[in-house]
Amino acid sequence: MQGGPDTAYFQRTSRLKPAALNATSPLYFETFLAECWKNGNRIGRHLLYDIKNRGYTGSRTNLERLLKVWREAKNIQPGEPPPDMDVSEPVRDPDTGHMISSVVAAALCIKPRGMLTDRQARKVNALKQGSTVFAIMRGLAMRFKGVLGSRNSEALAKWIDDAIETELTATCVSPAFCAGILMPSKMQSNSLGG
Questions:
Q1: Do the beta carbons of residue 9 and residue 69 sit within 8 Å?
Q2: Of the four listed, 13, 24, 103, 151, which is most buried by Cβ atoms within 10 Å?
Q3: Is 44 a domain residue?
């Protein structure tokens, strides 16, 4: 992959872009950034300076999120076999066009629908449509909260079997994920004997 970012990535993400981007999104300057990338300028602070001169009003963090995806795409070698699991592309916030960070996705994954704001609900819907892994993890998280509330050991055994059958990698089902599920409710921690 000489030159610039993966063109297949651009083709996949182009259909996810909202109708109108604004100057707070680095995607607003995507053509210019891709040209800079092709010419070897790949340093975030240099690119930030260049697009700020063209009217960019967003943060360096938002720019670095886009560059991270490009860098990761650049590191994939054409001869490498694809990974076993279908890892979804980064999902864009339907309101801003920015990529939804993994931290935000993790927080939304464990938050019940009734506690979501309208914006958060739109993000959850976008994540569920754009990421199979997120949809599976959210389903497991919501079921797990229900299982803990029911204090039913048979339901827990069924949940564990279903979680194993998803074949999600160990990095997806991490202690941090489980801690996030268990922390919000005192009743849930009591049901675990704590």
A1: yes
A2: 13
A3: yes
Same domain assignment for residues 108 and 60: no
Q: List CB contacts of 127: < 8 A, sequence separation 6 or more.
A: 91, 100, 105, 108, 109, 134, 135, 138
Instruction: For residue 171, give its domain range.
Output: 102-191
Q: Which two tokens stand for residue 174?
A: 């991490």
83 in a structural domain: no
Give the model confidence (pLDDT) of 129-163 as tens digits.
Answer: 888 888 888 888 888 888 888 888 888 888 887 88
Tens digits of residue pLDDT in 111-126: 888 899 999 999 999 8
Would 87 be classed as within a structural domain? no
| Burial group, residue 25, by CB count within 10 angstroms (0-12, 13-18, 19+) | buried
**Is position 14 within any domain?**
yes
Stated pTM of the model: 0.45
